[in-house]
Design a protein that fits this description.
Residues 255-286 have a biased composition (Low complexity). It contains eight helices and two strands. By secondary structure, it is mainly α.
């Protein structure tokens, strides 16, 4: 019995010893992990100071990230919104809108470049992943700047209006410049594609109903004589359009040099040939 009791005591002592060894191993591992948080090592007497500086740097960079990407989100929303331009504004207003957006994007890109410099100069920070995000975002913004700048140039004062009317009474609309229309379509398409690649979901929206020639398209089709109130009718039809659908329609619009026909999109109506001397041309949707 004494022998069994002695063996039991030895077993308990072994368990206690193993428990102490495990606790030591855990403590060592925790110490290594804490030290590993400061990748440059902690000098004696400087541990709190180094960690404090590191944490302050991370907090500062986080705030800069929030500022930059909030601004970036606002810029993309502004490009696709068109809320700043009303139906009765001059065409120059559209150009001003795109210029404002372009300036905002450039400002955002400048902030992003400055943020990149701050991250590189931050000690004790793993910057590889952050640099990759900044580079991709900077490239996206650069593409948007190019597209918006082109759109601002096309829509500035002095260029031919899309669907502008002649000066004579009851005049036919002036033919839209085909190259300008194509450039607008290309610019909007690039903006949409860039936004989609950046994770922004672009809805197709509700396409709406077809529109008869005398309900608005006559003010766009330049072989048709615009009558009294046609411009107002056109503005009314545009106002009915789903904003998401409008973006999708511009992105997928085409141009043509043949006579306008039933079911044409806005680009085709604006650039079609004036050879057919009748009121051809109906919009596929409003």
């Amino acid at each position: 019995m004494k022998e069994k009791k002695g063996l039991g005591e030895i077993g308990r002592r072994e368990e206690r010893r193993e428990g102490r060894e495990k606790r030591r191993i855990v403590m060592v591992m925790m110490f290594v992990m804490v030290m590993g948080c400061n990748s440059g090592g902690v000098k004696e007497g400087e541990g709190e100071s180094s960690q404090s500086k590191f944490l302050k740097s991370i907090i500062g960079l986080r705030n800069e990230f929030l500022n930059v990407f909030t601004s970036f989100g606002d810029m993309v929303g502004g490009i696709l919104g068109f809320n700043a331009v009303k139906s009765d504004d001059k065409r120059s207003k559209v150009g001003e809108h795109f210029k404002t957006i372009g300036d905002g994007l450039k400002n955002t890109k400048d902030k992003l470049d400055e943020l990149s410099k701050q991250i590189v100069s931050t000690s004790n920070a793993d910057i590889k992943g952050v640099e990759a995000v900044i580079q991709v975002t900077s490239e996206v913004i650069a593409k948007l700047i190019t597209s918006v700048t082109e759109l601002a140039g096309i829509t500035k004062e002095g260029n031919v209006d899309i669907g502008d009317a002649g000066t004579a009474g009851n005049a036919a609309a002036v033919a839209a410049d085909k190259a300008s229309v194509e450039a607008i379509i290309k610019g909007v398409k690039e903006i949409v594609e860039t936004a989609e690649k950046s994770g922004v979901k672009i809805e197709k929206g509700n396409a709406g109903n077809s529109v008869a020639n005398d309900s608005g398209p006559k003010a766009v089709v330049h072989n048709a004589r615009a009558g009294a109130g046609d411009a107002t009718k056109l503005a009314g039809e545009v106002a009915k359009a789903d904003p998401w659908a409008m973006i999708d329609k511009i992105k997928n619009a085409k141009t043509k040099t043949t006579a306008p026909a039933a079911g044409d999109d806005a680009g085709q109506l604006a650039t079609a040939s004036a050879a057919a001397a009748n009121d051809n041309g109906t919009a596929s949707t409003n």
